[in-house]
Amino acid sequence: MNKLGIYVHIPFCESKCKYCNFISGIFSQDIQKRYVSALIEEIKREKVETKVASIFFGGGTPSILTAEAIGKIMHAIKENFNLAKNAEISIECNPNSVTKEKLKSYISLGFNRISFGVQSLDDEVLMLIGRVHNKAQALQAIKLARSVGFKNINADLLLGIKENKNISNDIMELKTAGVTHISAYMLILEQDTPLFNEAKQNKIKLLSDDESVAQYEKYLKALRQNGFYRYEISNFALKDYKCKHNLNYWECGEYLGFGVSAHSYINGVRYSNTENISEYLKNSKYKNYEKLTKQEKLEELIMLGLRTKRGVSLKKLEGFGYKVLENKNALKMISLGLIKMNNTHLYITSKNFGIANQIILRLVE
Ligand SMILES: C[S@@+](CC[C@H](N)C(=O)[O-])C[C@H]1O[C@@H](n2cnc3c(N)ncnc32)[C@H](O)[C@@H]1O
Ligand code: SF4
Fold first, then answer.
1. Does the CB atom of residue 63 touch ligand 2 within 6 A?
2. What does CATH list as the number for 294-365?
């Protein structure tokens, strides 16, 4: 049965973190209000009958908006779309922009998953990368979320910044506070961000590539020991807590994205909104369409599917005429133990996730 994911982009933040180049920034209350209205108009214009299996409010920092504004957007979605009974409904939050009241209203609006940008449990690292919260506030926000009824709680972590001697302890503290899912990202030093410039001018010293890989390995071990199962390159979940919304992306499912810079993928057509907030406010109807060729669809299927532990469906590959056992590069990598095949899927063995990009390139050559 077809299922649909809905993504809502909220591009506002209290301050801009030093490493971040997402479409997000600091905007006035007036712009925020106008944005919410434009978003609701855009949602109301879309008509798709498919049942909605997941909704994800991401950013930026959705929790910066008032609970009332989030409620209005949610109301528009519920009025216009057909939500599955067990739909996963997530909201991304910065630990310092949630209060008990806000969290309670998220629960009453139907949110059942919350994601906190924790990044690190080392206050020195948090300062270094320009976060507006500390370790204690992050743990407090997680506990508060759990106390109002959230059972499914994610923490984003950022690795590759500074040596961390307490990895195992950090993971344990997060789990004890209530975290059931961890997204652990290796820092990407984005061109022209303040962190990039500070590193270039030797004002700060980040971990070298080798040190980062060694740190990642330690995280992998600590996550495993604490029961977090790696089901995608950067994502780890306790049993039954995989993120349905992201799994739908990786399985090339259909989704609709609302808001500035949001992408949609429906009936083999991908379309995207402008990345410019003023343009979006002027005309949220404008979309950039791109019909994918058969080869592009196949490449996307392999690229996204192989990011997951389960891998890419052999049936879907065959639908594109791709036969693994007739592909020279695939056979070679199977013989080298880099990829494996079971009855239903082709997958990268976990110890080779680190070279996933090279493997994927070979498969789509
Ligand atoms: C769009 S942010 C949303 C979370 C929320 N705004 C917050 O930061 O609390 C999603 C996640 O992307 C990750 N991220 C952002 N910039 C990154 C970068 N340059 N390299 C690696 N990960 C990054 C961070 O871990 C962040 O929590
Ligand atoms: S990391 Fe999150 S809070 Fe920081 S600037 Fe980016 S979107 Fe905003």
1. no
2. 1.10.10
